[in-house]
Amino acid sequence: MFLDDFIRMCFDGFEQGWHERNGGNLSYRMKDEDVEAVKDKLHDTGRHYDMNFSAPELKGAYFTITGSGKYMRNVPLAPEKNIGIIRIDDAGTGYDILWGLEDGAKPTSEIPTHLMNHIARMKATDGACRVIYHAHPANITALTYTLPPEAKAYTRVLWQSETECAVVFPEGVGVVDWMVPGSIDIGIETAKLITKYRAVVWTFHGIFGSGVDFDETFGLVHTIEKAAEIYLKAKSAGIVRTITDDEFKALADAFGVTLNPEFLG
Ligand code: 2HA
Ligand code: ZN
């Protein structure tokens, strides 16, 4: 059941140390069968909120989403208080809370970036992408203090830090330089990049990852975080050699993937 998978991912991220306090958030664009599976839980709570931006692409879409100020650690203990199900209204400018987010809770403060990313990834994947995840992994965040905020710099360092990285994210990763979180503007900038890259790093903050399901999305962020950890360890020990571009080309041939040519050479 999608709700069990959603709840498990919240706690998995906490166990990885990616969700201090209320850090991080998760949203899932529900399938018709998911809506059907929980239809007995859904009801008009009379709680309608404006999004402060227009998302005609999402009219009538249902999302499961974590709550603002809620701790990922607490999601399994009381899902109905810490997460909720919303439906984007028919105008595409607001949403109704249909389940959960009890005691007056609202969806995550990062809802603009979540919804804008969903629109971008829906378009990029012909509707296959359903999960948007924001986390605060320590090594990815530490990495942002060591590199210029450029996709090429991040992608090369991450690809070079673990052989399978280039296979897991052959398109590379995007980077948004520091901006005020929770804003419409950071949503717009992130969504521009997530069209091209499934993961976008937020400088001095964390990362947004996307995917068709919870496993793929969690696995992507996990892979990037581990690569960042390896890079930082290698850098502190002293890097004397790394994976070459010829080796990347051999890897791409062997695994049948096309590496983003902007990041080779
Ligand atoms: O507190 O992670 O970016 C939730 C966040 C804001
Ligand atoms: Zn955050």
From TrEMBL:
**Any idea where the Class II aldolase/adducin N-terminal domain is?**
4-232
Q: Which UniProt keywords are given for this protein, alphabetically ordered? A: Lyase, Metal-binding
State the InterPro entries in the record. Answer: Aldolase_class_II_sugar_metab (IPR050197), Aldolase_II/adducin_N (IPR001303), Aldolase_II/adducin_N_sf (IPR036409)
- Output one GO MF annotation: rhamnulose-1-phosphate aldolase activity
Q: Which domain of life is it from?
A: Bacteria
Which EC numbers does the record give? 4.1.2.19
User: Quick one: a GO cellular component term?
Assistant: cytosol
Q: Which GO terms describe its biological process?
A: pentose catabolic process
Supply the name of the protein.
Answer: Rhamnulose-1-phosphate aldolase
In its UniProt entry, the species of origin is given as Candidatus Ornithospirochaeta stercoravium
